[in-house]
Specification:
156 residues, alpha+beta, Trna Endonuclease, Chain: A, domain 1, 5-stranded mixed beta sheet
């Protein structure tokens, strides 16, 4: 039996050619609305699923999810054309302390840069272009999706 990600799909490259309708945003939004009472504790997981589906719809290929490396974890690793993309997913259900993208501090950005370097070295991808993207997910308190946006190349 192979390894599977949190959505029950085999780990590996998942792209538009293998796009599964279960991973479009609409079914995930319906699931969110059905389980409003459980939303709070798993908002990061919902945000990750929505981000993954959104990236697939934009034509990215998702390579890996929740990659643990020395110094932290990468939420998603994807490919956008020939570029490897280190994806940080930020989910917020209240804007009291700012938007999801505003929660990326300079130290977090530096850590993502180090994780990206570790990732490309570990996978022997030093010659491949890579960047850091942030997926900002805003949810309403009832679990309804308010906004999802990809901010490309936030690392410089």
């Amino acid at each position: 039996m192979g390894r599977f990600d949190v959505d029950g799909l085999p780990l590996g490259i998942i792209g538009p050619a293998q796009f599964d309708p279960r991973h479009s945003i609409e079914p995930i939004k319906r699931q969110l609305l059905r389980c409003r009472g459980n939303y709070g504790q798993s908002s990061e997981r919902w945000g990750l699923r929505l981000a993954k589906a959104h990236l697939l719809q934009l034509g990215y290929k998702v390579l890996e999810q929740n990659v643990r490396m020395r110094g932290g974890e990468i939420d998603l690793v994807a490919k956008d054309g020939d570029t490897v993309v280190i994806v940080e997913v930020r989910t917020k259900s209240t804007l009291r302390f700012g938007t999801p993208e505003e929660s990326i501090t300079p130290s977090k950005l530096a850590r993502l840069g180090r994780l990206g370097q570790f990732y490309v070295q570990a996978r022997k991808l030093e010659e491949v272009a890579w960047r850091i993207d942030v997926v900002a997910v805003e949810m309403e308190s009832n679990g309804k999706l308010r906004r999802i946006e990809v901010l490309k190349n936030v690392g410089g």
